[in-house]
Write a structure and sequence with these properties.
- The strands form eight sheets. The chain has a four-stranded mixed sheet with strand order 1-2-7-6, with no helix packed on it. A three-stranded antiparallel sheet has the order 3-5-4. It has a two-stranded antiparallel sheet with strand order 8-9.
- It has three domains: about 1-160 and about 165-225, no CATH class; about 240-335 and about 370-485, no CATH class; about 350-360 and about 485-570, no CATH class.
- It is α+β, with helices and mostly antiparallel strands and about 575 residues long.
- Helix content is about 30%, strand content about 10%.
- The protein has helices at about 35, 70-75, 85-90, 105-110, 165-180, 185-195, 200-220, 235-245, 285-295, 310, 320-330, 350-360, 385-390, 395-400, 425-440, 440-455, 505, 560-570; strands at about 1-5, 60-65, 85, 130-135, 135-140, 145-150, 155-160, 230, 260, 270, 280, 380-385, 405, 425, 480-485, 515-520, 525, 530, 540-545.
Length: about 575
């Protein structure tokens, strides 16, 4: 069932007269009739009739996922503390090879960013997941966890869904636009005329942001391009902690691209992330999201503390702890999307019924069935060792095996009361920054702890078939991947943790029969195979022979007959 829709003109960016909450907590309750009359039902979404890859739509619809328009718009632009670059520069910067604004909708769509109309909490019509922090602009989790599906001229927005964003491509183009402006007096002159502070401010912002972007790109080099719909988020987060604690030259190679997980029910899991390393108990959710902010350009000033008393002061940072707590609490209301039979082809209920019996026999032990509307629902993740599930091991190994220099922290006291040596595990470094940054945000930590107790999020043992930690191998349980309920799985392509399988039908094939390569980044949907259209070479090709891209493993259901395979695919549409 669609929640609301709007027909929008090509590249229209007119103000819809919307009012949205721009503070540190999400709005409560439904919009008033006056607010609806002003356009809240449209949620400020913007679609293009045709984009650079041949996709497009004339109508945008939102599904009923438990959020109202106020909550959606707040989530899209809430400030978590990310500081990517100068806000004024991004708003007024031109594209590298023309005079059009860099933030023009047709340009941002090339990177699969989701364009928005201007609203009071987004006055310059920045895309979904961009938020202002003082005089800077950065990203929020909405940038990577809001999705769109196009089908025969209708765009379906999926809140909390895995995005198709080309993260590294966007940053590279942004750097190119800045460097083109630095080298072109005419571009610089036009920018200076638009920016506050004139030429001096323009030159300073260009120099600062060019230097930072160049350093970031040089610190995150890879032989396994991530492309669209994937990001080696774990390694990039670790590299940010390395940047803050020692030197960018100590950064890790980016070799483990991963899909963006769906966010519905994430606050209700006992353990989250693909590897299942992050517990939601106590203040775990706040810690997890603080790490996310570090990865998307929050700033942390690492201090060398040698006593526990001194360490209580924590690390100064840009992290907005209260907003992070509010966003996690808002996500508790988010429900998985239901297959919209008024937009996509209707489900064959008889075939799906046959598939249900197969699911209950072969899938439910790892992927439990869940009532998406149950306010008390909880999720126990099933953690399966890489030696059992057989999928690409790169991401698990990054967390389980990587060590980094301690840098400023050598000889400092850890949150566990021990002194750091010359190096430490990557996970320990991330944990140090998270704990110390939150020590400087005690109100947020207290609030997060209170909410965890309210929701019954208590410590529990990881479930599933995986190795247990030992004194000699404390990270043994990290060599594993997490399975979760599959509600909303139809809106979560591509599949496996690394996005190496284009659709659900292909996932049920033996690995040798799965596509060895396929394109990703198209919004146009394939409702038969359940995934995006993936033929051709545009905009990005995933080569599954490359390390980090392997499409091996997860051989559950791969021995079904073709008739049973289609029945199971049909049932998965109903979840």
């Amino acid at each position: 069932m669609t929640h609301c829709s709007t027909s929008l003109p090509l590249l229209s960016v007119s103000l819809l007269g919307l009012v949205a909450c721009a503070g540190g907590s999400p709005p409560a309750g439904p919009p008033t009739p006056l607010e609806v009359a002003r356009g809240f039902g449209e949620r400020a979404g913007l679609v293009l009739v045709k984009d650079a890859y041949g996709d497009g739509a004339t109508k945008l619809v939102y599904l009923d996922q438990g959020w109202g328009p106020l909550e959606t718009l707040w989530y899209y632009h809430a400030d978590q503390g990310s500081t990517l670059m100068s806000y004024d520069l991004l708003v007024h910067l031109e594209q590298a090879d023309n005079q059009r604004p860099f933030i023009a909708p047709e340009n941002l769509t090339r990177f699969r960013l989701l364009n928005q109309h201007a609203t009071p909490n987004n006055p310059d019509a920045l895309p979904v997941g961009f938020a202002r922090h003082d005089d800077k602009v950065g990203l929020t989790c909405a940038a990577c966890h809001t999705n769109q599906i196009n089908y025969q001229g209708t765009a379906i927005r999926i809140d909390g869904g895995p995005a198709l964003i080309d993260f590294s491509g966007f940053l590279h183009a942004l750097r190119g636009a800045i460097e083109a402006t630095q080298g072109d007096p005419a571009k610089l002159g036009r920018l200076a005329a638009r920016m506050k502070g004139g030429e001096a401010a323009a030159r300073a912002a260009l120099a600062e942001d060019q230097s930072w972007l160049a350093s970031y790109e040089n610190s995150n080099r890879t032989t396994t391009p991530e492309g669209f719909a994937r990001l080696d988020a774990i390694t990039r987060i670790v590299n940010q902690t390395v940047r803050f604690s020692s030197d960018p030259k100590n950064s890790l190679p980016v070799t483990a691209p991963a899909s963006f997980p769906e966010l519905w029910d994430a606050p209700r899991h006992d353990y989250v992330q693909w590897v299942g390393f992050a517990a939601n108990a106590e203040i775990g959710a706040l810690g997890r999201n603080t790490g996310e902010v570090v990865g998307v350009f929050g700033r942390v000033e690492v201090k060398h503390y040698e006593t526990e008393e001194a360490a209580k002061k924590g690390y100064p940072s840009t992290i907005e702890g209260n907003a992070i707590v509010a966003m996690e609490e808002s996500l508790r209301k988010l429900q998985s999307p239901l297959w919209p039979e008024d937009v996509l082809p209707p489900i064959d209920r008889a075939l799906a019924k046959r598939g249900e019996s197969l699911y209950r026999a072969d899938c439910v032990s790892c992927h439990a069935l869940l009532d998406r509307a149950d306010p008390k629902r909880k999720v126990v993740a099933m953690i399966t060792g890489i030696d059992v599930v057989g999928t690409d091991a790169n991401e698990a190994k990054v967390l389980a095996e990587t060590r980094v220099p301690s840098g400023k922290l050598e000889g400092a006291i850890s949150p566990e009361g021990k002194k750091y040596g010359a190096d430490m595990t990557a996970l320990s470094l991330l944990g140090d920054l998270v704990v110390r940054a939150l020590s400087a945000r005690p109100a947020a930590a207290i609030q997060a702890l209170a909410l965890a107790k309210l929701h019954g999020m208590v410590k529990s043992e990881k479930q599933g078939q995986h190795r247990r930690p030992t004194e000699s191998d404390p990270n043994a349980d990290l060599l594993a991947y997490k399975a979760r309920p599959l509600n909303g799985i139809w809106a979560s392509a591509p599949y496996l943790h690394n996005g190496s399988v284009p659709n659900l039908h292909a996932l049920l094939l033996p690995p040798a029969s799965r596509p060895a390569s396929f394109s990703v980044g198209r919004w146009e949907y394939d409702p038969k195979h359940v995934g995006y259209v993936s033929d051709g070479q545009v905009p990005f090709v995933v080569d599954t022979t490359v390390s980090g891209n392997r499409n091996s493993g997860h051989e559950y259901g791969t021995k079904l007959s073709q008739e049973d395979r289609w029945a199971l695919v049909e049932y998965l549409k109903t979840l």
